[in-house]
Write a structure and sequence with these properties.
The protein has 21 helices and 11 strands. The chain is of the alpha/beta class and 467 residues long. The strands form 3 sheets. The chain has a 6-stranded mixed β-sheet, with helices on both faces. The protein has a 3-stranded mixed β-sheet with strand order 9-10-11, covered by helices on one side.
């Protein structure tokens, strides 16, 4: 929390330096224990405002061995952009990063950078500039909003943005705003990344904050390590920006500078252009982590998609479920990492808690239920009701159908030989006849798939035959 030094006299205090040195020495020992071979050390461009930033960086290096590079302000914002664009499916965005003494805003459309600006007020120095002893919280917040609105009054492009543009919040301020919003509305899925707040949700948070005592010492329990006045100023900055744009949603990004930097190192292609298939990249990463025993996830996904298309006249699910099926079929046996005998139930927990990028909270929750529904008795109505704010009654039947499709796809490649080249479907009366196109016999695979016959009938109200 060095920003508090910067707006006082623009000198980083020796005590702060020693606190950081102690942390870095512990971190050095931790890196050595993990046999880390490469480190990349960067510091926010705000440190350039410190009169003693050079001696500060030198002191850190001499005592900890970590050589820090201070980022340029535009470079830092690009790292934020890289962390966002490679992990969120937001075609048109307004990235806002509220730092201690600065606020950075970047506008993009279809992965083209349009406008960006760095403003000289952040959560710490805006609170200090507007603080008056004895000023009630609501008036303190109104004062901060007006002061920041004045800062952005000349940014005409803010008011002229496409209404489809969504605000993307990066950093600790938005992490706290999102957490407070989820608590206030009793949101059932405690996941920060890709949490979407409507304007109504944000107003609820803003009005709540204005009712509590905001001073220089108070903290909001369970929400943030920051002082309440610093949190309030961050929310007021957001309110000022919202009131000067046409944006209707705020999407929370857990990923920013660090993740942008890591993407550039671990996946150098992101230095030239963003990842095209965010979900596919994320699924590949998760598959590598979880599916130690499986070598056929791509085959199961392909077969599941074939069955999904052939059975479309029966399941009648909208296109939005294609992404759900992709997630669930790719990670269908990730639960084997815990227990091979009950992998469907364990898979539910894994998919629900995984860092999956390029999908909404709703899609990830549905995919988790689809994984569990490979074994229909693992469907837990209590778990489903828990997410009633996000899911509806029709979703219950949908995940059961997807679960059966995935189970059949897995069975049709039971021995991981990729024998089936195509599948066609005939619906005759009360029967569904699936015809496999193969070069080698698949009697054993068909026998395995027909184990789903009872569940298939209950879900689709048709008898199943496979040839």
């Amino acid at each position: 929390r060095i920003a508090s030094d910067l707006y006082e006299d623009w000198l980083i205090k020796p005590a702060r330096t020693q606190e950081l040195v102690a942390i870095l020495k512990n971190y050095r020992a931790y890196c050595q224990s993990l046999e880390v071979s490469q480190t990349e050390c960067v510091a926010s461009f705000e440190y350039l405002d410190a009169k003693n930033h050079n001696s500060f960086i030198d002191e850190l290096y001499s005592q900890s061995g970590f050589k820090f590079r201070i980022l340029e302000k535009d470079e830092q914002l690009i790292f934020d952009y890289t962390g966002v664009i490679n992990t969120l499916d937001v075609p048109k965005g307004l990235i806002i990063a509220i730092r201690g003494t600065k606020t950075q805003i970047l506008n993009y459309n279809r992965r083209n950078l349009l406008n960006q600006v760095t403003l000289d007020f952040g959560s710490c120095n805006l609170a200090e500039a507007c603080y008056e002893n004895g000023l009630e919280s609501s008036k303190f917040c109104d004062k901060m909003v007006k002061k920041f609105e004045k800062e952005i009054s000349d940014l005409s492009w803010l008011k002229e943005m496409d209404p489809e543009t969504q605000i993307v919040g990066v950093g600790p301020t938005f992490s706290a705003i999102g957490k407070l919003s989820r608590k206030l509305k009793k949101y059932p899925y405690d996941k920060e990344h890709n949490y979407v707040m409507t304007l109504k949700d944000f107003v609820q948070v803003f009005e709540f904050l204005k009712t509590i005592e905001v001073d220089r010492t108070k903290k909001i329990k369970g929400i943030s390590a920051d002082r309440a006045d610093v949190l309030a100023s961050g929310i007021c900055i957001t309110q000022a920006i919202i009131s000067n744009t046409n944006c209707e949603n705020i999407v929370m990004s857990q990923n920013g500078i660090s993740e942008g930097l890591i993407f550039n190192i671990a996946s150098p292609i992101t230095l030239e252009k963003p990842i095209t298939d965010i979900l596919g990249y994320s699924l590949t990463r998760n598959t590598a982590a979880y599916n130690n025993y499986s070598t056929n996830t791509d085959v199961v996904y392909s077969l599941a998609m074939l069955l999904y298309k052939q059975l479309k006249v029966l399941h009648k699910l909208p296109r939005t479920f294609v992404k759900v099926l992709r997630i669930a079929s790719t990670l269908h046996d990730c639960g084997k990492r815990i227990d091979a005998r009950n992998y469907e139930k364990n898979g539910f927990d894994i998919v629900l808690r995984s860092d999956l990028y390029g999908c909404s909270h709703r899609e990830q929750i549905l995919a988790a239920f689809a994984v569990a529904c490979q074994k229909t008795e693992d469907f837990n109505l209590v778990d489903f009701v828990k997410y009633r704010e996000i899911l509806d009654q029709e979703d219950m039947e949908a995940v059961k159908k997807l679960g059966i499709i995935i189970r059949m796809a897995n069975a049709l490649d039971k021995f991981k030989k990729n024998k089936i080249q195509d599948i066609t479907c005939d619906i005759l009366g009360d029967s569904v006849i699936l015809k496999t196109v193969v070069e080698n016999p698949v009697e054993m695979e068909i026998r395995e798939a027909l184990r789903s016959e009872g569940d298939f009938y209950r879900a689709f109200k048709k008898r199943l035959e496979i040839l």
